[in-house]
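Researcher: Last one for today. Full complex below.
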Amino acid sequence: MRYVIIGNSAAGVAAAEGIRSRDKSGEIVMISEEKFPAYGRPLISYYLLGATDRAHMDYRPSDFYEKNGITLRLGVRAEKIDPVGHTVLLSDGSEIGYDRLLAATGSRSFVPPAEGLSEVKAKFTFMTLADALALEKALSKKKEVLIVGAGLIGLKCMEGILGRVKKVTVIDMADRVLSSILDEKGSQIVQRQLEARGVRFVLSDSVVRFEEGRAKLKSGGEIAFDLLVMAVGVRPNIELVKEAGGKTDRGIVTDEGMRTSLPDVYAAGDCTESSDIASGKRRILALLPNAYRQGYCAGENMAGGDARFGDAMPLNAIGFFGSHILTAGAYEGESFITGEGDTYRRFFVKDGVLKGFILIGAPERAGIYTALVRERRSLSEVDFEMLKTEPRLSAFSAEERKKALAAEV
Amino acid sequence: MKRIYVNEKWCLGCHLCEYECAFAATGLSDMAKALKGKRIAPKIRVEDCGDIHFAVNCRHCKDALCVKSCISGALSKGEDGVVRIDRDKCVGCLTCVLVCPYGAIMPAPDGHAAQKCQLCTDNTCGVPNCVAHCPNNAIVFEER
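Model: Here's the assembly. Have a good evening.
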């Protein structure tokens, strides 16, 4: 049995671990376009910040591949899947056969076309370690940086470089920061905290044209910059599976066992769509916890198991310069707000269950809320009044606590 | 594997386990010297709610969501079943705090990492110090 895994980040590594949970001897080959052993992708901003270093970024111990009998092929790209012949064509011209294949192809930075952009020399994206290392080389206290995109990637990049450059300006078409995970009040708190640190935001505006060291804005203004970071968004890498005839929508379509529509081909991670249990919608949830659980499930099934990953949901833990913003689920239904000053909690309740929440400056024990969302537990079973101000197991019945604390879980 | 289990009805709410946990982490031999005047940051926490008291620490879940969700690979599950954190790898993002259903992993007081119970395998106690000193057997260390 030969397992071929395309992709060597969270979903790919998880798949290898899932395979090995059932099959100790089958051959595993991992293929990655990147030149590094697996590293924590979201750590690249922490690396620039100095909160971690190269030696500590490895996602798994250095003996991981050897110990698990994995042949790692770095710096090669999978170009084409032949689903009939069960082979993958690689960028070095070689071909590799598979019995089971995983597409853990991830996503890529999306850079929309803009006038003059191709002439900007010092432009960067911020997704991979190679991106971070390239950006790092260009950093200096004399440089002014323009980041296009005030989302998760743009703001984490900002945090990583703020102390290493002269000035950072962040521009976004949206009228607020982190608009994909925060409500208006939350965005205001975060924006105010970051402005106090010297970050300049230009919101509800966009770049219409890049000129020599300048971005001309839709509003008529302009921003001078030395370095440009494009952090507008990401796109899933669905092409390999799509061109092989596999079913895709915005992402690669799989069942709950991570099987694609092609025989013996599985997919996991940022390249796939999930059923979000909080909103009930199919969507791309490009988040590391999701990627890992999908990958592990795929691996188990590639090795003959019948695992399901059926409780995907949005989960974000982000923060800047020591702040903590934790969010989960869907922002639907009636909402309840507690907290004061820079502590902000908002809970969303619909059909008698917690659908989602936003916590700013109150991270402690947040997983108690996440479990309520994930399990879709009726709030009539818990003391929700208590939970609104503090997550506690006291809010659950004695019987529930017994299950959690007096038994194996 | 042996885990720490809670007998809620026997918990007096004395919070001694919290002090014993913090003490175990110091590696010192005199609790008064180790903790006097210090703000403690134990990895076991007692909840008090009227007459109800119980301690909560890491459950060392069979299918640990924190390990699967960790963005840096700092959390791992050993062959002995113990969920451990490598503080040098942890960047303190708190994804683990966001996913732990028991609220049993927490920010460490230095703010740079998370911290959790490792069943005193990370100190010289040998057995969990909270259990060894619980005056009413409200927490036990055993196979179930």
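The domain at 1-57+120-144 of chain B is CATH 3.30.70 (Alpha-Beta Plaits). Chain B touches chain A through 41 residues (CB under 8 Å).
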